[in-house]
Description:
By secondary structure, the protein is α/β, with parallel strands linked by helices. The chain is built from 12 helices and 14 strands. Helix content is 30%, strand content 12%. Residues 1-48 and 409-424 have low confidence and may be disordered.
Amino acid sequence: MAATQRIAAGAVAVAACAASLAGCTTGAPGSEQGVSGPQKAKPAAPAPKSVTRLIGDGSTAYTGAQPHLPRPERLKPGQKPPQFVVFSWDGAGEDSQKLFSHFRKVAKDNNATMTYFLSGVYLLPEEKRDLYRPPQHSPGRSDIGFNDQQGIADTVKQLRLAWMEGNEVGTHFNGHFCGKGGGVGEWSVEEWKDEIAQAKGFVKSWKSNTGMTEAAPLPFDYDKELIGARTPCLEGQSNFRKAARELGFRYDTSGVNNQVWPGKKEGVWDLSMQLVPFPGRTFEQLTMDYNFMVNQSGTKTQGDPAKFTFWGDQMRDGLLAGFQRAYDGNRAPLIIGNHFESWNGGTYMRAIQEVIERVCTKSEVRCVSFRQLADWLDAQDPDTLAKLRTLNVGEAPRQGWDSFLAGAPAPAPKGVPGAPAARQ
């Protein structure tokens, strides 16, 4: 992919963590699906499950409820919460490294679904770059570049397959501007709204912008599918959340948290990444590949090859330590962020795969997308979540889960608010 990685200009200290906060990176259509014609059945009959209704220029389509999206269930009184783990990817494009397709397979093989934060400019060809009008920058400017026809075709194919497998497509916005001089941290609420509208627009018009009019559509309505995001370099969170709330987003994952149960900020779930143990270091580390890299090889994306194996093991073991701390403790969801990159010889991709393989098949573990986690949180009784938030990092209930959550209200009957069915 033609895009280049944006490295934040300055390191950002978080608690005892010395890492700079991460940014994003770069990244044949599937077979054409026919569009169903008018139905001959009685007007009251439901549409067939295979119905496809094209939206706009046919870049996206309504194809029914997303497959493999589980119905969330409210915890029963005294029931131990499952251990949720969210693996997410910033940028989410398919390039010559084929990491998108690779981790789709890894997820399927290990009973996992994930969230892919698509950068809208990855569906915009280089020759159409002037269609992007970024806030506080000239038209056609992007710090991660744009894409070519093959890269767009490959990315659309992976997005299509990923969604059909139950994964989520979020957004990482467009030009990935960080720092001073027009970075996202300086954007107003209205500028965020404009950036979000453009990110949606590039997804909803990729056929028109590429001329690939005969390709199969993305099988979802992006206006309804898009419910959350991660901001570039984890900047601009306050104004973004205000815009997100007004636009109906349900979560944000742009901050830094400890391993405790999440709550809402600005009306949306704060599902930010977390600090976990950093083996061999005196501070904790953000759960993102970029931050491990910065604390190991600095801004060099390819450091000393003799240290690649050690650095990968260090990241893997840190994430596993954070997982075990939650699994044996307060059961707070573990939030992990990554990029489809081969920094330091691909050592972080190896580390992430090993974590997926070790944790996602464990008893009582659910490796899910942010959408699925938000669905589950929304289905719980607020008093139960409030009680879970009283547990500190790694703290299991002293009296055991049966007693700790024994006073939780009985599960709500089907069909009541707070226990929603799978999204339609």
